[in-house]
Design brief:
Order of helices and strands: EHEEHEHHEEHHHHHHH
Strand order of the largest sheet: 1-2-4-3-5-6
Helix content: 40-55%
Strand content: 5-15%
Number of strands: 6
Number of helices: 11
Radius of gyration: 19 Å
Largest sheet: 6 strands, mixed
Distance between the termini: 9 Å
């Protein structure tokens, strides 16, 4: 979780000055080329992130269009992850943590989409040029073709509209917004705990957590008895955002869903979706830190 809570939904920001990762996290479903480090790229299976080839494998720099991609990435001194032979339609520019991008990655993976990761190193961020080029001076940055977006919730809503994940009608869309804004409220509280008051505040946070989870249990109970999604009968971008946050809280406070049978079943049900399960089981997700300061 990299974004510093603020009053605007999805507007929490982060500086590498407080990003102290214990190690370089793997990127999502893609091989990596760490620019400026002398390491060459590796191509991986796009679904599971498994390294392909061995002695005599294709030179990744000869892949179609890859040289141009790497040249563009070098301009912003990031780590690029390219895992398809052709240019993926989406690009995520973010730090090597789950933070505010994992819900987007989960959505893309579950929907069978491909994307490229430009993972921003500590050194690149501290140089300041990338930060200065970002609209609000913060990440994530998301590119869909020639459309560049900032703000994690704006990115989710864009994908919700473009991929049919925003309810089936205006009423469902309104309820999806209700859910997602509730997720944002809890995510900002979580971020405040993680980055500003972890040691002193964790006990009280966990004690108050049931009251903050109860609204989501209520919403589930009001939709097909909690046996479907958070809104309607098809998955929405808010489901991915809520699932990501609930998984983070299960790490923070194991057993926090024990008194919420619908939420507990919901997490298990969504996590078992084949494409999403493959992503959640992948080394890229498993090895990527949840937050930038090592606390979780």
């Amino acid at each position: 979780m990299l974004d510093k809570p603020s009053q605007g939904a999805g507007s929490c920001s982060a500086d590498w000055a407080r990003l102290r990762c214990g190690g370089a996290g793997a990127g999502a479903a893609g091989g990596q080329s760490r620019l400026g480090s002398g390491r060459t790229g590796q191509r991986r299976d796009s679904a599971l992130g498994v390294e392909r080839g061995g002695p005599g494998r294709d030179d990744p720099y000869k892949a179609r269009g890859l040289q141009a991609c790497l040249s563009a990435v070098a301009a912003v001194a990031t780590v690029a992850f390219v895992y398809t032979a052709t240019m993926p339609p989406y690009t995520i520019v973010y730090f090597p943590v789950r933070g505010r991008c994992e819900a987007t990655r989960m959505l893309l993976a579950d929907q069978g989409q491909t994307w490229k990761e430009e993972v921003v190193t500590k050194e690149a961020w501290m140089q300041g040029s990338l930060k200065a080029s970002c609209l609000y001076g913060q990440l994530p940055k998301f590119q869909d073709g020639d459309l560049t977006l900032y703000q994690s919730n704006a990115i989710l809503r864009h994908l919700g509209r473009s991929l049919g994940l925003y309810g089936k009608n205006q009423q469902e869309a309104a309820m999806v917004d209700v859910v997602n804004d509730g997720v944002e409220d809890l995510r900002c509280k979580y971020g405040t705990l993680i980055y500003t008051n972890y040691e002193a505040g964790k006990k009280d946070y966990v004690k108050e957590l049931p009251g903050r989870l109860k609204p989501f249990e209520t919403l589930l109970s009001q939709n097909q008895g909690g046996q479907a999604f958070i809104v309607g009968d098809q998955i929405s971008f808010a489901d991915y955002n809520l699932l990501d946050l609930l998984l983070n809280h299960q790490v923070l406070a194991p057993g926090c869903l024990d008194s919420f049978p619908l939420l507990s079943a919901y997490v298990a049900r969504l996590s078992a979706r084949p494409k999403l399960k493959a992503f959640l089981d992948s080394p890229e997700h498993v090895n990527r830190p949840i937050n930038g300061n090592g606390k979780q």
